[in-house]
Design goal:
Rossmann fold; four-stranded mixed β-sheet; about 15% helix; PFKA; kinase
Length: about 230
Protein backbone atom coordinates (compact mmCIF):
# COMPACT_ATOMS: atom_id res chain seq x y z
CA UNK A 1 0.00 0.00 0.00
CA UNK A 2 1.30 3.45 -0.88
CA UNK A 3 0.50 6.54 1.16
CA UNK A 4 0.84 9.96 -0.47
CA UNK A 5 0.67 12.86 1.94
CA UNK A 6 0.68 16.37 0.43
CA UNK A 7 3.16 18.71 2.02
CA UNK A 8 0.65 21.55 1.67
CA UNK A 9 -3.07 21.92 1.15
CA UNK A 10 -3.64 20.43 -2.30
CA UNK A 11 -7.11 21.89 -2.89
CA UNK A 12 -6.85 25.08 -4.97
CA UNK A 13 -9.41 27.88 -4.83
CA UNK A 14 -12.05 27.87 -7.54
CA UNK A 15 -10.69 29.23 -10.80
CA UNK A 16 -7.04 28.62 -9.97
CA UNK A 17 -4.59 25.87 -10.86
CA UNK A 18 -2.32 23.89 -8.62
CA UNK A 19 1.23 25.13 -8.63
CA UNK A 20 4.37 23.22 -7.82
CA UNK A 21 4.24 21.51 -4.45
CA UNK A 22 6.13 18.83 -2.55
CA UNK A 23 4.71 15.47 -1.56
CA UNK A 24 6.04 12.99 0.98
CA UNK A 25 5.73 9.43 -0.31
CA UNK A 26 6.09 6.49 2.05
CA UNK A 27 5.26 2.93 1.12
CA UNK A 28 5.62 -0.63 2.35
CA UNK A 29 7.22 -3.33 0.19
CA UNK A 30 7.69 -7.07 0.52
CA UNK A 31 10.98 -7.98 2.18
CA UNK A 32 13.34 -10.71 1.03
CA UNK A 33 13.72 -11.77 4.66
CA UNK A 34 11.36 -14.52 5.79
CA UNK A 35 11.21 -13.04 9.29
CA UNK A 36 10.07 -9.61 8.10
CA UNK A 37 6.80 -9.37 6.18
CA UNK A 38 7.17 -5.75 5.11
CA UNK A 39 9.80 -3.04 5.07
CA UNK A 40 9.27 0.72 5.03
CA UNK A 41 11.14 2.94 2.64
CA UNK A 42 10.89 6.57 1.63
CA UNK A 43 11.11 7.86 -1.91
CA UNK A 44 12.78 11.19 -2.72
CA UNK A 45 10.65 14.36 -2.61
CA UNK A 46 7.96 14.51 -5.28
CA UNK A 47 7.36 17.71 -7.24
CA UNK A 48 3.87 18.16 -8.64
CA UNK A 49 4.06 19.82 -12.06
CA UNK A 50 1.78 22.89 -12.39
CA UNK A 51 -1.46 22.21 -14.24
CA UNK A 52 -2.73 24.91 -16.63
CA UNK A 53 -6.47 25.46 -16.35
CA UNK A 54 -9.02 27.06 -18.64
CA UNK A 55 -9.96 29.42 -15.83
CA UNK A 56 -6.43 30.86 -15.97
CA UNK A 57 -7.14 32.16 -19.47
CA UNK A 58 -10.93 32.55 -19.64
CA UNK A 59 -12.25 34.55 -16.73
CA UNK A 60 -15.77 34.16 -15.42
CA UNK A 61 -16.28 30.53 -16.42
CA UNK A 62 -19.11 28.91 -14.43
CA UNK A 63 -18.51 26.00 -12.08
CA UNK A 64 -21.29 23.47 -12.70
CA UNK A 65 -21.97 19.98 -11.32
CA UNK A 66 -21.11 17.26 -13.80
CA UNK A 67 -24.07 15.94 -15.83
CA UNK A 68 -22.76 12.41 -15.27
CA UNK A 69 -24.51 12.31 -11.88
CA UNK A 70 -27.87 12.89 -13.59
CA UNK A 71 -27.35 10.51 -16.49
CA UNK A 72 -29.66 7.46 -16.56
CA UNK A 73 -27.02 5.63 -18.61
CA UNK A 74 -24.12 5.91 -16.19
CA UNK A 75 -23.76 5.32 -12.46
CA UNK A 76 -20.33 6.37 -11.10
CA UNK A 77 -18.81 4.06 -8.52
CA UNK A 78 -16.97 5.30 -5.39
CA UNK A 79 -13.63 6.81 -6.33
CA UNK A 80 -14.73 7.38 -9.93
CA UNK A 81 -14.09 11.11 -9.94
CA UNK A 82 -10.57 12.52 -10.05
CA UNK A 83 -9.63 15.04 -7.35
CA UNK A 84 -6.82 17.63 -7.12
CA UNK A 85 -4.67 15.25 -5.06
CA UNK A 86 -4.85 12.36 -7.56
CA UNK A 87 -1.46 12.15 -9.23
CA UNK A 88 0.72 9.83 -11.28
CA UNK A 89 4.52 9.67 -11.10
CA UNK A 90 6.54 10.21 -14.25
CA UNK A 91 8.78 7.28 -13.29
CA UNK A 92 6.88 4.44 -11.64
CA UNK A 93 9.34 1.52 -11.65
CA UNK A 94 11.78 1.07 -8.74
CA UNK A 95 14.09 -1.73 -7.60
CA UNK A 96 13.80 -2.02 -3.81
CA UNK A 97 16.42 -4.74 -3.45
CA UNK A 98 19.14 -2.14 -2.99
CA UNK A 99 19.09 1.32 -1.46
CA UNK A 100 21.51 2.40 -4.18
CA UNK A 101 18.81 1.83 -6.80
CA UNK A 102 16.46 4.34 -5.18
CA UNK A 103 16.63 7.58 -7.18
CA UNK A 104 18.30 10.42 -5.33
CA UNK A 105 16.88 13.27 -7.40
CA UNK A 106 13.39 14.70 -7.10
CA UNK A 107 10.55 12.76 -8.69
CA UNK A 108 8.12 14.48 -11.04
CA UNK A 109 4.37 13.94 -10.70
CA UNK A 110 1.43 15.00 -12.83
CA UNK A 111 -2.30 15.37 -12.23
CA UNK A 112 -4.29 12.37 -13.40
CA UNK A 113 -6.63 12.78 -16.33
CA UNK A 114 -10.23 11.76 -15.85
CA UNK A 115 -13.73 12.96 -14.98
CA UNK A 116 -14.12 15.72 -12.40
CA UNK A 117 -17.13 16.51 -10.23
CA UNK A 118 -17.53 19.88 -11.93
CA UNK A 119 -17.51 21.12 -15.53
CA UNK A 120 -16.91 24.59 -16.94
CA UNK A 121 -19.42 24.69 -19.79
CA UNK A 122 -23.17 24.25 -20.01
CA UNK A 123 -23.71 21.11 -22.11
CA UNK A 124 -26.66 22.72 -23.89
CA UNK A 125 -24.38 25.52 -25.12
CA UNK A 126 -21.36 23.41 -26.11
CA UNK A 127 -20.38 23.14 -29.78
CA UNK A 128 -17.92 20.25 -29.94
CA UNK A 129 -15.73 19.43 -32.94
CA UNK A 130 -13.92 16.15 -33.64
CA UNK A 131 -11.07 16.03 -36.17
CA UNK A 132 -8.71 13.23 -37.26
CA UNK A 133 -5.26 14.35 -38.40
CA UNK A 134 -2.06 12.87 -39.79
CA UNK A 135 -1.54 9.15 -40.27
CA UNK A 136 -4.11 6.49 -39.52
CA UNK A 137 -4.04 4.40 -36.36
CA UNK A 138 -6.23 1.46 -35.30
CA UNK A 139 -9.59 2.24 -33.75
CA UNK A 140 -10.07 5.83 -34.94
CA UNK A 141 -13.71 5.29 -35.88
CA UNK A 142 -14.35 3.61 -32.53
CA UNK A 143 -12.94 6.65 -30.73
CA UNK A 144 -15.12 9.00 -32.79
CA UNK A 145 -18.20 6.89 -32.11
CA UNK A 146 -17.57 6.73 -28.35
CA UNK A 147 -16.93 10.48 -28.17
CA UNK A 148 -20.21 11.23 -29.91
CA UNK A 149 -22.22 8.75 -27.83
CA UNK A 150 -20.58 9.90 -24.58
CA UNK A 151 -21.11 13.59 -25.28
CA UNK A 152 -24.71 12.98 -26.34
CA UNK A 153 -25.95 10.37 -23.88
CA UNK A 154 -23.89 11.10 -20.76
CA UNK A 155 -23.18 14.84 -20.94
CA UNK A 156 -26.26 15.96 -22.86
CA UNK A 157 -24.36 17.79 -25.62
CA UNK A 158 -26.46 18.18 -28.77
CA UNK A 159 -24.14 20.17 -31.03
CA UNK A 160 -21.40 17.78 -32.16
CA UNK A 161 -19.58 18.13 -35.47
CA UNK A 162 -17.03 16.14 -37.43
CA UNK A 163 -14.38 18.11 -39.33
CA UNK A 164 -13.50 16.37 -42.64
CA UNK A 165 -10.00 16.22 -44.15
CA UNK A 166 -7.91 16.89 -41.05
CA UNK A 167 -6.82 20.35 -39.90
CA UNK A 168 -7.41 21.99 -43.27
CA UNK A 169 -11.06 20.96 -43.01
CA UNK A 170 -11.63 23.78 -40.52
CA UNK A 171 -11.46 26.23 -43.43
CA UNK A 172 -11.86 24.13 -46.58
CA UNK A 173 -14.82 21.86 -45.76
CA UNK A 174 -18.24 22.05 -44.16
CA UNK A 175 -18.51 20.51 -40.67
CA UNK A 176 -20.69 17.39 -40.52
CA UNK A 177 -23.31 17.21 -37.72
CA UNK A 178 -22.89 13.99 -35.72
CA UNK A 179 -25.26 12.09 -33.43
CA UNK A 180 -25.40 8.54 -32.02
CA UNK A 181 -27.61 7.28 -34.84
CA UNK A 182 -25.26 8.56 -37.52
CA UNK A 183 -22.10 7.02 -36.01
CA UNK A 184 -23.76 3.71 -35.16
CA UNK A 185 -21.69 1.04 -36.87
CA UNK A 186 -18.65 3.27 -37.48
CA UNK A 187 -16.60 1.03 -35.20
CA UNK A 188 -16.92 -1.71 -37.83
CA UNK A 189 -15.28 0.39 -40.53
CA UNK A 190 -11.58 0.91 -41.19
CA UNK A 191 -9.59 4.12 -41.56
CA UNK A 192 -11.41 7.26 -40.48
CA UNK A 193 -14.87 8.12 -41.78
CA UNK A 194 -14.07 11.81 -41.28
CA UNK A 195 -10.99 11.40 -43.55
CA UNK A 196 -7.61 12.91 -42.74
CA UNK A 197 -4.66 14.77 -44.28
CA UNK A 198 -0.99 15.44 -43.61
CA UNK A 199 0.66 18.87 -43.42
CA UNK A 200 -0.03 21.83 -45.65
CA UNK A 201 -2.44 23.53 -43.26
CA UNK A 202 -2.72 27.21 -42.35
CA UNK A 203 -2.80 27.69 -38.56
CA UNK A 204 -4.33 31.17 -38.78
CA UNK A 205 -7.14 29.91 -41.01
CA UNK A 206 -7.76 27.01 -38.61
CA UNK A 207 -8.25 29.42 -35.71
CA UNK A 208 -10.50 31.61 -37.86
CA UNK A 209 -12.54 28.53 -38.78
CA UNK A 210 -12.95 27.50 -35.14
CA UNK A 211 -14.18 31.00 -34.30
CA UNK A 212 -16.45 31.14 -37.36
CA UNK A 213 -18.20 27.89 -36.48
CA UNK A 214 -18.37 28.71 -32.78
CA UNK A 215 -16.51 25.59 -31.65
CA UNK A 216 -15.61 25.81 -27.96
CA UNK A 217 -14.35 22.25 -27.58
CA UNK A 218 -12.08 20.64 -30.16
CA UNK A 219 -10.85 17.05 -29.89
CA UNK A 220 -7.93 15.95 -32.06
CA UNK A 221 -7.20 12.30 -32.92
CA UNK A 222 -4.68 10.81 -32.76
CA UNK A 223 -3.80 12.92 -29.68
CA UNK A 224 -0.52 14.78 -29.44
CA UNK A 225 1.99 12.89 -27.28
CA UNK A 226 4.69 14.98 -25.64
Amino acid sequence: MTHVTPGIDSTPPVGSSLGEMDLDVTTAAASSSASVATADFTLPPVTLTPLPHLADHLKGLPVLPTPIDRSPFYHPSPGFYIGPSDIILRHILFDLSSSESTPSSRLLAYHRAGPRRTVRFKPSAVRAAIVTCGGLCPGLNTVIRELVVGLWEIYGVRQIFGVPSGYRGFYSAKPVPLDPEMVDGWHKRGGTVLTTSRGGFDAEKIVDGIVKHGFDQVRRHPPIVS
